[in-house]
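This part of the workshop introduces the protein records we will be handling. The structure tokens are whole numbers drawn from a learned vocabulary of backbone shapes. The record below serves as our worked example for the rest of this section.

===
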Amino acid sequence: MRKVPNDLKRKSKEVWLVIMDDDRKEFSVEGPMTNDDPWNKAVCQAQKQGRQVRSSSASIEKTEEYIKRYWVSQGYKEAQKPIVAPNEWLE
């Protein structure tokens, strides 16, 4: 097996995850996190159930407040609880 050079290895970067509920015009900001896979799976499960939800990551260089102001300017309001949550949170 060939060894992958360090500069080619995937670097774990912290991101904010923004989840939007287009039916309710709400958003939530989760994180920062390095692995958004569980959250994206939860979004996909909600979509399969007919919910109009989506997610987007934002650079950690942006502040949580900046992200919130942006989504409010787009006509969304901040959700009072997470829009979706990873399955392990529900167990």
About this structure: The longest strand covers residues 26-33. The first helix runs from residue 37 to 48. The radius of gyration is 15 Å. The CA atoms of residues 6 and 12 lie 13 Å apart.
